[in-house]
Amino acid sequence: TKRIFSGIKPTGHLTLGNYLGAVRQWVTAEYEPECALFCVVDLHALTVEHEPARVRRLSRQAATLLLAAGLDPARCTLFVQSHVDEHTRLAYLLECTATDGELRRMIQYKEKAARAQVSGEGVRLSLLTYPVLMAADILAYEAQEVPVGEDQQQHVELTRDIAVRFNQRYGHTFTVPRATLPAVAARVMDLQDPTSKMGKSHDSGAGIVYLLDEPGVVRKKVMRAVTDSGDGGVLYDRRTRPGVANLLDILAACTGGDPAALADGYSGYGALKRDVADAVVELLRPVQERHAELAGDPAQVEKVLREGAGRARELARPVVDRAYRAIGLLEP
Ligand code: AQP
């Protein structure tokens, strides 16, 4: 069976983008615990300005939400990145494999570095090296597939390059992974600014649907979504009609239809928005119900994370040890 790995960064409350782009792919497959690893990648949350208590709170919340969304601890391994030292151990070796130029080309780095500069906070060095730590997250588990949204595709490509280079120079050590993207909604856009991604750390609250938003809030956000001017009814064209295309993508992802075909069923934006709002509310309802139950039992979530970290450590250690030997470090 295939080994898969993916993660979520506790930099904000989980969004509809995280769910449709990534989390839903994680919960629909049938796994064995050793084959599917899902991680709250808390170290990655320290690459931008952060508040310690908030990161802790968001890490717990992310784990709880992943369970609420349907991750079954009996069939997958759910853990917190900082609980398994192998990630940072391996990251250093990969920093000795990747180049400065490669990392500066990453789109997320350019965007987030620009934002950090504007805020006057300065760009943390870890923001530049973040994709290398992400490569370590993936390679430590010999993952073959990495189910992610479109914004993470470039980082998975870099991971492949690093793995191939390491293997060529030091002998076969790592499995070379590939990204898998959902067929629709691989990039959910901000409802208020449909030319940029719906991002959990962005401040446009009105354009972001959070998984824990109440139905009334979801409806309000969807009904106020920016649509496109221009006549010709409801058309699916991501380039010229990004606002409407985004709503059609969301509807298609929720109902299982095809976004272009769905467009034919509407003559106006109002009816489309109402259907999108209904579909999202229905999609989130069971997740929110389970979240409310689980949030009342934090000890249960902690137990899952503790057991997950134990299993993850056992899987990662031999791989990372092998990499230490291959690259030329003396056995202790
Ligand atoms: N808008 C999106 N549409 C589809 N997929 C998305 N993902 C994120 N935003 C969208 C996918 O969700 C998974 C977890 O994301 P992450 O925690 O690694 O953070 P990110 O990719 O940097 O996205 P965020 O949520 O916008 O966080 P911030 O604002 O902190 O950068 C990934 O598989 C991602 O592709």
Automatic annotation (TrEMBL):
> Main localisation, per the record?
cytoplasm
Q: Which domain of life is it from?
A: Bacteria
Q: PROSITE patterns annotated for this entry?
A: AA_TRNA_LIGASE_I
Record-listed ATP binding positions: 9-11, 17-18, 149-151, 188, 197-201
Catalyses which reaction? Answer: tRNA(Trp) + L-tryptophan + ATP = L-tryptophyl-tRNA(Trp) + AMP + diphosphate + H(+)
Q: Is Endoplasmic reticulum given among the entry's keywords? A: no
Where in or outside the cell is it found? Cytoplasm
The answer to keyword NAD applying to this record is no
What Enzyme Commission number(s) apply to this enzyme? 6.1.1.2
Pfam families noted in UniProt: tRNA-synt_1b
UniProt motif 'HIGH' region: location = 10-18
Residues that coordinate or bind L-tryptophan: 137
Question: Care to name a GO molecular-function term for this sequence?
Answer: tryptophan-tRNA ligase activity
- Name the UniProt key words of this record, in alphabetical order: Aminoacyl-tRNA synthetase, ATP-binding, Cytoplasm, Ligase, Nucleotide-binding, Protein biosynthesis
Motif annotated as 'KMSKS' region, chain positions: 197-201
HAMAP family in the record: Trp_tRNA_synth_B
Cited function: Catalyzes the attachment of tryptophan to tRNA(Trp).
According to its UniProt record, which protein family does this protein belong to?
Belongs to the class-I aminoacyl-tRNA synthetase family.
Oligomer and partners: Homodimer.
Instruction: Output this protein's name.
Output: Tryptophan--tRNA ligase
Q: Which organism is it from?
A: Streptomyces avidinii
Q: Which gene encodes it?
A: trpS
